[in-house]
Amino acid sequence: MAESDVNPKAYPLADATLSKTILDLVQQAANYKQLRKGANEATKTLNRGIAEFIVMAADAEPLEIILHLPLLCEDKNVPYVFVRSKQALGRACGVSRPVIASSVTVKEGSQLRPQIQSLQTAIERLLV
Asked: Which residues, including other chains, have CB under 8 Å from residue 56's CB and lie 6 or more apart?
């Protein structure tokens, strides 16, 4: 998918390097049971205040089906980011289906804490 094919509403969009980091962490979060897949589940984690950050797919069709998430994230002060492909996000989530949104959740004493924090910082830099 070319740069120009990405919906401009899909902001902030992670570049290739950051996307890889994000998808790697999503994969680890899935292994540690710290992942919720799908727009509805992501919405629930935000409402319950257990989301560390939200990852959305920029190629969701139509994109509007997930555009309530950035607004909710801003309300709740949760970092969010778009990756290019729902297929890649699905793979990272450990399912064979495309996933248009996922939420990495809070877990006491999680081993992923340092990676989650450094990624939150990286995502917040994109939003500036």
From this structure: 10, 42, 66, 69, 70, 80, 81, 82, 83, 100, 101, 102
